[in-house]
Write a structure and sequence with these properties.
It is a single chain. By secondary structure, the chain is mainly β. It has one domain (13-63). The chain is built from no helices and 5 strands. The protein has strands at residues 13-17, 28-33, 36-41, 47-55, 58-63. It is elongated, with a radius of gyration of 16 Å. The termini are far apart. It binds zinc ion. Zinc ion binds next to loops.
Length: 69
């Protein structure tokens, strides 16, 4: 009998990006999930969507366009 294991590993990584906030220059606590990433500034609490691109040098993190009210 073949038993299949469900390998549904949640790919969720949290990192701190120093001086990454576009509003105040503070550190952003970023959470990377499968297909998306979000960050919140530790100083001004701005919530931002992050865009992750794979480059030759590794991973590049940038701010996704955010609509302002
Ligand atoms: Zn900030």
């Amino acid at each position: 009998m073949n038993t299949e294991l469900q390998q549904e590993t949640p790919h969720e990584i949290e990192v701190e990006l120093p001086d990454a906030c576009v509003a105040c220059g503070g550190s952003i606590a970023a959470r990377f999930m499968t297909g998306s990433a979000r960050g919140v500034c530790l100083r001004c609490h701005l919530i931002t969507a992050l865009r992750v691109a794979r480059t030759d040098e590794g991973m590049q993190v940038g701010h996704a366009p955010v609509a302002l009210a």
